[in-house]
Amino acid sequence: MTKTNRGNVICVSHPLVEHSLTVLRDYRTTTEEFRRHADTVSKIILIEATKHLSTKVKNIETPLAPFTGRQLNDKVIVVPVLRAGLAMLIALRDFLPAVSVGFIGLERDEQTAQAREYYQKMPKIFASHIVMVIDPMLATGGSFDNTVAALKKKGAKRIVLVSIVSAPEGVKLLQERHPDVMIITGAIDDHLNAKKFIVPGLGDFGDRYFGT
Ligand code: PRP
Ligand code: URA
């Protein structure tokens, strides 16, 4: 896996990501195919996003001999941004089946593109927790910005944002407001259009993934 590193932003580059992203972007892709490729691309990006989790020694026995292995040490909280973030939560389940999950519900107003919070339920957050916020689309950055602000208010100090497609405008906003936060994404597209949709993008992720 290769990656482009721009300050606190990592753009994951992998042939499987490029392939699946092309399927996701194609307007002819069916809901079934969209879900399958969203799962593939999420998994690869999430592998990169979990790369720096710490591990600790674990002594076990194989059927043949004692073995000193390692197990995950960091405590992770994952926060899917409802509703599209649920697609990435499903992908993460295979890697971190016991992870604590906090929820935030944000919906962009179709006229102003401002995110409005309609739901929030978080586990207790400690400064030592790695809080991974997952949302496939980083457009204006408003949804991630609101989420990060809410998490910092609750004590989060180690926040990682994970998206599938990002717009340069949103990345810039988050870099300015939250230089302490890492962003891992599958693509940084060209620009936002007048309706604040990512171009070329893939359209409305939630509508396409949930078939609405
Ligand atoms: C989409 C997407 C992000 C947000 C990104 O959500 O899933 O949460 O827009 O845009 P921003 O960076 O400009 O805030 P949407 O409001 O369409 O809700 P949904 O997930 O319920 O479809
Ligand atoms: N939300 C989406 O689902 N797509 C965009 O292009 C922008 C916000």
Task: For this entry, give a set of tags.
212 residues; alpha/beta; Rossmann fold; nine-stranded mixed sheet; two-stranded antiparallel ribbon; 6 helices; 15 strands; 31% helix; globular; binds 1-O-pyrophosphono-5-O-phosphono-alpha-D-ribofuranose; binds uracil
Question: Can you summarize this structure?
Answer:
Helix content is 31%, strand content 33%.
In one word, what is the shape? Answer: globular
Determine the mean pLDDT.
95
Major sheet size, sense and barrel closure: 9 strands, mixed
Query: How are helices and strands ordered from N to C?
Result: EEHHEEEHEEEEEHEEHEEEH
Class, according to the CATH hierarchy?
A: Alpha Beta
Strand content of the residues, in percent?
Answer: 25-35%
The helix-and-strand class reads: alpha/beta
Could you say how many structural domains there are in total? 1
* CATH topology name: Rossmann fold
Please, could you describe this protein's structure?
With 212 residues, the chain is α/β, with parallel strands linked by helices. The chain has one domain (2-51, 73-210): Rossmann fold, CATH 3.40.50. The chain contains six helices and 15 strands. The chain has helices at residues 15-25, 31-49, 85-92, 142-153, 168-177, 205-210; strands spanning 2-6, 9-13, 55-61, 66-72, 76-82, 100-101, 103-108, 115-121, 130-134, 137-138, 158-163, 165-166, 182-185, 191-192, 198-199. The strands form four sheets. Strands 1, 2, 5, 6, 7, 8, 9, 11 and 13 form a nine-stranded mixed β-sheet that branches. Strands 3-4 form a two-stranded antiparallel ribbon. It has a two-stranded parallel ribbon with strand order 10-12. Helix 1 packs antiparallel against helix 2 (31-49) and helix 2 crosses helix 3 (85-92). The chain is globular, with a radius of gyration of 18 Å. The model has no long low-confidence stretch (mean pLDDT 95). Bound molecules: 1-O-pyrophosphono-5-O-phosphono-alpha-D-ribofuranose and uracil. Residues 81, 83-84, 106-108, 113, 115, 135-143, 170, 196, 204-206 line the site of 1-O-pyrophosphono-5-O-phosphono-alpha-D-ribofuranose (PRP).
